[in-house]
Amino acid sequence: MEDIEIARNTKLEKITKIAEKIGVVEDDLEAYGKYKAKLTDDAYQKVENKKNGKLVLVTAINPTPLGEGKTTMAIGIADGLRKIGKNAVLALREPSLGPVFGIKGGATGGGYSQIAPMEDINLHFTGDLHAITSANNLLSSMIDNHIFNGNELELEKVTWKRCVDLNDRQLRVVETGLSAEKNMTPRTDGFDITAASEIMAIFCLAKDIQDLQRRLGNIVIGYNKKGEIVRAKELRAEGAMAVLLKDAFHPNLVQTLEGTPAIVHGGPFANIAHGCNSIMATKYALKFGEYIITEAGFGADLGAEKFLDIKCRVANLRPDAVVCVATLKALKYNSGVPKEEVKQENVEAIKRGMPNLLKHIHNLKENFGLNVIVAINKHPFDTDAEIACLEEALQEKGIPMSLVESWGKGGEGAVDIAKKMVELVEKPEDFRFTYEDTDNIQTKLEKVARKIYGAEAVEYSEQALKTIQTIEKLGFGHFPVCIAKTQYSLSDDPKNLSCREPFTIHINEVILKGGAEFIVAITGKMMTMPGLPKVPAAEGIGFAENGEVKGIF
Predict the structure, then answer these.
(1) pLDDT, tens digit (0-9, with 9 covering 90-100), for 461-493
(2) What's phi and psi for 71, nearest 5 deg?
(3) Which of 102, 221, 225, 524 is deepest in the core (most CB within 10 A)?
């Protein structure tokens, strides 16, 4: 059966029953039908003095274009922990409509390791991404209205972009203000996808509603005639934006197909944004569960690095263990095997692809000082010889692993890793960041590029260097860095899968995110507005003859 059929044929528990499993009463829920709800402030206030549970991060090696199943793995581990009698809670990101209708599909897991209701979560869910889009575009409207009505702030260069939660390459660069009305000067503008917008980043990094409003006010919208930054609070826009986000800011509660509570909230991409669910969601989960399973987007060079260097720094979090997901097909793909051939047995390709996995493990263990277990997301086409080759390579390095079959067996297929996880989280760690707050911006970028990616050098465009100088002169050099980079390679070249030869990271643009309180560095050919593939998933989505939705995966 397809994922959507499995989800549809599973009888879900009412959301009030799921809430009871984490000690939340009905009065502390804002229900969105029978199977979705938002957790209120009251729900958190009743448990905020409880000891935090154990935090486990799920990351991965560099993926194939279709992904490696981190979300499926995270769901499976949580269900597996419940199978062995542990109180597990998930903290995951919300899907974006861009990938849902693009190449990747949904983000609710797969097979028998899914969160539900699958269709709702993958589409409009509880309206969070629409609220974020609206808040973003309200600020755009207020900027242009201010200019139209005399431009008292003397805005000369507007850097703030509109956004939309869809892949639409036509909107990357647009000309606006073409009506020739009074005070409306045409300018070159553009759109970001909502998942890459600064509002999404702020939404996910804010610690409470007051912090949310403060950060919204600190958004840099552009520069005045003196070259000074202009912020959203100078337009008095932050209050209205915060109010638009008021309901969305409450974390969402849903469930796995096996009834494990899942808090799903916020959805920044990890290749062009920071790739983690909201601090609010994680904060709630840590109080409600004994073991909290969370996930960061794409490979450990992107999502995990940003989770650890940005989110953990901001929220004062320390993961108790890390799961590094690998698939045999990804090992083969990273060795140079075409994606059309990754289902064929190829033991030599497994050996050639191992350096990618080992690099991610090295980063997590040696650079960040964390305990790591490798989870092999098993597929039906994996052969015994290939699995044995991988097991032998990991055993030689003393790296624990588990063969996980949660896609086909649900929580039962993740019991082994659940048991190993319970042991792993009790081992001591020596967690540390890649760089220090006091490092200058270039030092931070180069530490990530050299330590995490394995780059030999970093090259900057002239404009990037100028922007770095400006940011430091303005006093924001202490912010962490958020590097936008291809997910398919440790380098900034998506075709350089092996990274065997020395490579250079090319930083073309640097952007100050004053509200998110980090500095974005765009490498290679990354775009903050993705495009659709030649054959988008949208072409296969619609209604079946019985009136049910088909094609979402």
Answers:
(1) 999 999 999 999 999 999 999 999 999 999 999
(2) -65, -45
(3) 221
